[in-house]
Amino acid sequence: MEIKAYAKINLTLDISGKRADGYHNIESVMQSISLADTLEIRENNLGKIYLSSNVASLPTDESNTAFKAAKLFYEYTEIKNRYVDIRLDKQIPDKAGMGGGSSDAAAVLWAMNEIYKTNLTMPELFRLGAKIGADVPFCLAGGTCHCRGIGEKIARVDPMPACFLLICKPPAGVSTPRAYAMVDKLLFSAPTGTPKMITALKGGNLQHVSAALSNRFDEVLFLPQVQNIKKVMRTGGALNAMMTGSGSAVYGIFEDLEHARSCAQDLHGYGDLFLAKPINV
Q1: What's the topology of domain 2-156?
Q2: How many CA atoms lie within 13 A of 21 on its CB side?
Q3: Distance, CA of 77 to CA of 89 (rounded, Å)
Q4: How confident is the model at residue 187 (pLDDT cuts 50, 70, 90)?
Q5: CATH: 3.40.50.150, 3.30.70.890, 3.40.630.10, 3.40.640.10. Which one for 164-276?
Q6: Does the active-site annotation cover 8?
Q7: pTM of the model
Q8: Mean pLDDT, to the nearest integer, of 185-194?
Q9: How far is CA 260 from the centre of its chain?
């Protein structure tokens, strides 16, 4: 079975507090985009889960989220002596805040549920996914969603209006644990950006949606490369630009492809560039 694992962006990301278990409570509007990894998953007779990738530096052992998902699926369903071969074609940049590893795990869980006809419900898949990563439940749901808790509480909201997204992933980045550690030094606040975004999405106006972008990590980390990219995007015709997740990828929202491509030329040398669209899957 071949399946696409779609990247995500955070239209908003509020952090309201730290839990006793060490996780953080968030409120976020997440959006699937057309940039995707491709996974080919099939049963094998090798006596083990086997993972390979087009990226030589990518771990292919139990530290990989796709591998973790396959192992967890077998444990949960109690399927014995069955194994899969996973071929992963990576296109989503690493350490970007775009859910690359989470989307791969979600794709494996969904595909294996289909392959083995285990009929796991979406809430069951959400619970399994949350054991791998906070973004996995959203990557299973896809589309445009309001995500709460650690990210496992999912509710669909009105879709993002059609547009073009220019994404720039600069070389610099901050690990997610370090990003949260920096947030922990500040006072937590009630989520404000997310309710505004949900209201903006109801109106279906791209300019209003663009104006409602927010990200607590962007505010706290204030990475110089990120700020420079945002400035170039806005000067180059983006309705707005924002870092996604804990970074360091930045996306700009454009009404037309011509301006997005022109801005990509302006960003040459700033980092890896991608063009995408919001999608509902």
Answers
A1: Ribosomal Protein S5; domain 2 (3.30.230)
A2: 5
A3: 27
A4: low
A5: 3.30.70.890
A6: yes
A7: 0.94
A8: 74
A9: 21
> Do 2-156 and 164-276 have matching folds?
no
Q: Alpha helices of 57-175 — where are they, by DSSP H? A: 65-77, 100-115, 122-130, 136-141
Q: Which residue in the list 37, 104, 135, 218 is annotated as catalytic? A: 135
Round to whole Å and give the CA distance between 41 and 20. Answer: 37
Backbone angles phi, psi at 40, to 5 degrees: -115, 120
**Which region among 64-68, 131-135, 227-231, 273-277 has the lowest average model confidence (pLDDT)?**
131-135
Residue with tokens 């496992």: 152
Find, among 82, 74, 142, the residue nearest to 107 by Cα: 142
Nearest to 29 by CA among 151, 160, 144: 144
pLDDT tens, 25-82? 889 999 999 999 999 999 999 899 999 999 999 999 999 999 999 999 999 999 999 9
List the catalytic residue out of 8, 169, 196, 230: 8
Which one-letter DSSP state was computed for residue 171?
S
Alpha helices in the chain (DSSP H): 65-77, 100-115, 122-130, 136-141, 176-184, 193-203, 206-211, 216-221, 224-235, 257-266
**Average model confidence (pLDDT) across the chain:** 93
Mark whether 104 is an active-site residue: no
Spans of all domains in the chain: 2-156, 164-276
